[in-house]
Amino acid sequence: MEGVIKFNLHYTRQPCVTPEMTAELSGWRYIMHKLQLIGQDQARYMGYGFGNLSKRCDDEPQSFIITGTQTGGSLFLPHTEYSKVTACDPFDNSITATGMTKPSSEALTHGQLYQIDNAIQSVLHVHSPRIWNYREQLGLPVTREGAAYGTVEMALEVARIFRESSGQSAKCFVMGGHEDGVVSFGVSIQEACETMIAVLAQAVALGGGK
């Protein structure tokens, strides 16, 4: 279930994220929230918050800023609700992070993508029943059903999909074992979000608006 951190977290609670570091992220997150791709609904996923986004740090390319765990309910996220991941080892199942909140439970997946390709500067994870249900018609890569989010198995699946889909040509994939979970990425948060919006539009067209 999203919201439950499954990796080994080495966390230090202290201020380190500034408003300047999160301004663009928060702007795009607001749009994703309005599209109901990020949020919190008592009727969905046992009431847990869902969706998260991140960007690589400009001055520390091995680090990235990511939304905090269980912050989906807020329409606009202040900088104190972001966390800075300074080390990520997908295959040791561990994350090191600092901030006033713990990182998203999807931080391992984000970190894996940043390590796979230095060109990736931002990652977006949303929940979209429309995209998830039309994944075959959309021709999207899909992780195997047995790979749960926030695990080594998911990290391996992300690496496989990136390899088999010729890297960034995919830019979007579906998490087969994570209900409604969809991930996009790009050279900027704008590209990652615009990719997701374009895929959503295609899914709506396939479903005739239903």
Q: If you average the pLDDT, what whole number results?
A: 90
Q: Termini separation (Å)?
A: 26 Å
Label the overall shape: globular
**Total strand segments:** 10
Provide the gyration radius in Å. 16 Å
* Helical coverage, percent range: 25-40%
Major pleated sheet: 8 strands, mixed
Beta percentage is: 15-25%
Order of helices and strands: EHEEEEEEHEHHHEEH
Q: Ranges with pLDDT <50 over ≥5 residues?
A: none
Count of runs of 4 or more consecutive helical residues: 6
Major β-sheet strand ordering: 1-7-6-5-4-8-10-9
- Counting helices, strands and paired strands, the structural category is alpha+beta
Describe the protein in words.
The chain is an alpha+beta fold. The chain has 6 helices and 10 strands. It has an 8-stranded mixed sheet with strand order 1-7-6-5-4-8-10-9. Strands 2-3 form a two-stranded antiparallel ribbon. The chain is globular.
Task: Chart the SSEs and their pairings.
Layout: E1 8-13, H1 19-34, E2 39-40, E3 49-50, E4 52-56, E5 64-67, E6 82-89, E7 94-99, H2 107-116, E8 122-127, H3 129-133, H4 135-138, H5 152-164, E9 172-174, E10 181-186, H6 189-206
Parallel strand pairs: 1-7
Antiparallel strand pairs: 2-3, 4-5, 4-8, 5-6, 6-7, 8-10, 9-10
Helix pairs in contact: 2-5
Q: How would you briefly describe this protein structure?
A:
This protein has 210 residues and is an alpha+beta fold. Helix content is 31%, strand content 23%. The chain is globular.
